[in-house]
Fold these 4 entries.
Entry 1:
Amino acid sequence: MTSTNRLLNRVILVLLAAIALAAAAYVANRAYPTVAIPSVTTLDTITLWIVAAGALLVIVLAIAVILTRGRGHSRVAVTSRDDDGAASIDARVVADLIADDLALVPDVTAVTTRAFRVRGARALELRVSVRRSADLRLVVDAVDRAVAELDDVLEHRVPILLHVVSGVRANLARRQRVR
């Protein structure tokens, strides 16, 4: 999901919440007309300022939360620039390259990657799904070799966070057969 879609989604949610709040206030006013709602003239001005400051604080905090979510995620794993221009490699291409290298490891069922920008540099999260009771040393060594080959192919060393997971999907996957 792009940041434009996220922003549009959040704006729509805020508008729908405001409409729902107004509708709830209208229904409550119609259902219970005998409830005494104090008029502005009977409230102390200091109370109004406190309520306004609290509402402003909530609004500012909500905007800060909305604007700080979703930062850092990127689809591009590596970008190489030279005099002729720039070339970018998608994170899915990196996942496919590493998955091809790990295809002969019997305990690995799936490989996915996500790219992030961390302090201005790109880093990859490599998620390797393995079967239960897999030989983790064998898997980690195979991933190390695959990442070293990837670094040689890209001619660029990419920081990688390895996340080895196992679950129902990994356990139910068929074993690969090599002929």
Entry 2:
Amino acid sequence: MLDHKPMNRLLIIFILLLLSCAAYSQAKQKSADELKKEMAEIRRNSDWGNEAEANKSQAKIEELSKQLMMIRKVEQQQQAGATVDSAKLQEEAEYKMGLWKQMMAAVDQGENGDILLAKPLREKIVEAYKDDETPKVKNPLYYEEQTFLCIDMSVPTIQRIIDQMENFKSIKSLMITCSREPVAVDLGDILSRAKNYPLEQLHIINFKNYVTDVPESIDQFPNLKMLSLFNNNIDQLPASVAKLVSLQTLYVDMNPVPTVMPMVQSLNKLETLGVARTQIGDSEIKQIKTMLPNCKVLVQ
């Protein structure tokens, strides 16, 4: 039987990403609030230990997520006075749901499975840039409107995206990942280029031995609400994490981290802490639960 607990954790991340970069909607159906309430009910009432029920619930959440994307994007375009392109928005919605399925498939593989998060995005980027040695965004509004940016170091042309990072003005969710074999990444440089983003979510995922620490400069994002560091080789969090006082969710899963106590003890808004497959001991976990009674500590 599949262990759906880590899958649910990544599902939450992905749903939040969908909300932040929003895509497509058809006419008036259910409101966004109604859809979110229905999704919360499914997550709360499903028996995730029952594989058949879990699969059925995931399918429902996937469909509701797509509808939510639709509503958000239509609202966004209507507020901007733009014409709604249903076909294009449908394509975006299908793409993002495909992205979610790849994430879930990777987690299904267990401890040895890579998080193949950005495969479709990688193919789109290569196709778009293959005949252009100096790609430029032709619509300047793109830089203003884009709220989600994925830096996939497996993409051969990714440096071209990195070189344009300062042009983006509204990025709230930044994903730094490696969708194929892990490679080296200069996190300091990437985060420096992102320093002016109104960042609320930062995900550094799947670099294994190539990421052993996180830059101290991470505290340059005072509004950060979610930080996920899945599947790296981080053995110590930077002390500056303690300054992220808006942080609500922190995932250090699948890293040889021995302690997070010095960093999280001042994070009074922390609601979720993922520590599965780390070296954090039971005694520290008990201390954290006592110190932060409103924080849910996930050990699986």
Entry 3:
Amino acid sequence: MVATRPWASRRALGVPLFLAYPVLTHVAVFSGLTYLASAAWLCLAALAVLAFPGRWGVAGSAALAAALLFVDAETLLKMPPIVINLALAVWFGKSLAPGEEPVISWFARLIRGIELAPDLARYTRTSTIVWTSFFLISAALAAGLALFASPQVWTLFANGIDYFLVGALFVCEYVYRRLRFRHHQHAPLLEVIRAVARARGLSPRRTARP
């Protein structure tokens, strides 16, 4: 119980910061209040410390905060939707390499606590491809809108529609899996979400079983 308290306290701080970031960004764009944009960026800086506790997290947070001295917050805020989506695409995509365990297969194995049946293993690999493609497309859209669209259109996608699409894909995939593989047992949706949250600090197997 004691070992979980640091993570629980970081989560208690991280959740409101994570939620405040897109809201502050969105309001800053539509209101023109630059201090709100700066506050949104500082939320990201604070999240860096919570996500990576220790000297590297402090250094990253300080670097992010210091960036405000050289670049205006409105410009800086165009970068996270691109970088985050690309990072997720790389993480999902590299797990598709030969000998690696696809990310969705890993999540499914953690939830079930056993090795996946062959049909589920094939499906979760395909699902990993879908998520990789989704994040790549999202990154490309975020970059294109940041460059060529108005700030208002950009923020509607980057700080609204993109989050909705992630949730919609997650729920739709879950529903499809339950219908397509009804002969397998499936955990409730809330348990799936909890399992994904608990996976922090873990990683897929380096070498997947054949």
Entry 4:
Amino acid sequence: MRFSTNYLIYPENRALERAIANAIGMLSDEAAAAAVPDTNVTVADNFRYTRGNYEQHRFSSRTFESLRETLEGSLTDTPAPGTPAPTISRDRAPLAWAAAQNDLGNILAALGQQRGDAELFEQAIRCFGNALAEFRQDNSPLEWAATQYNLGTANQALGRLLETAKPFKVAVDAYTNALLVWTRDASPEDWMFTMHQLGDTFHAHGKLLKGNRQLQKSVVAYKNALAGLDADNYALELTAAHNNRAAVLHHLGESEENPERLEEAIRSYEKALTVSMEQQLPIHLAVLCRVNRTTAQNVLAELTNDTALAEEVADEFEVIIECFSHALQPLCLRHCEEQMDKARSLALADSASR
């Protein structure tokens, strides 16, 4: 089973933002100044919110390496001669040490995503394991839950990078642990974000296994996340949840050869598109939702041999290419061209057979 291409949206990683904010005071003035993002860039970033789990735009990614070096230096048990003594001692301040391990883990994972480096993700996972040696559910429940969440996200990203199942299983266990503390009533926002991440994890795992059960779990997780979202306070997250839920339904419809699943996916993509447009999110996100919806319609046209729909799909892709090429990533533009040709072929084949 080969799934068609669709595009996910990743909300900003708030845990990463907090890690940077916590550690930035340890940098020199010059290094801290470099953490300010460049707001003078005039070219739109069509990859924004599509790169992966470690999206953040509050700080410049150029500061990640400085933050890593500074945090690692502060946690070194035996500093090199001529360097200051470690500023965070596990023996004297175990919870502060665990918090720094948590921050370092997020920075390492962000670097891992930036560089496509599995070893950096594995280092991040070890940092979260170190933090969990001090943060326990009984003595630091909120910190324990946050670290479990971070552990889940690093493993999810590692699973995507390596295309292997074990990290996804670890991620699901970690997110499930976080939900022992982050209940819907006690921590509704954290519960919602965790449900979203479970949706992402089950989807990626299901695609890897080509297993409908994991995809069905993903649909349920996204549905739970949607229950905690509204357009006024969580426009990006709501758009992402509708779009990503649709992407799962899209793949589930292909796997089951089920037109009703595809129709549900199309409706969910349309909800994402509506929220994105009404809340004036970056235009490329609306275009991605539109590309996803039209791709699902193409699958539906082929599955049901609906040549009228195929003609509509071809026309829609032509409009997207002609009017929104400036908002498309290069590979997405190629995808649109291929999908348009595929729809045209289906429509022409039917005409030729008459």
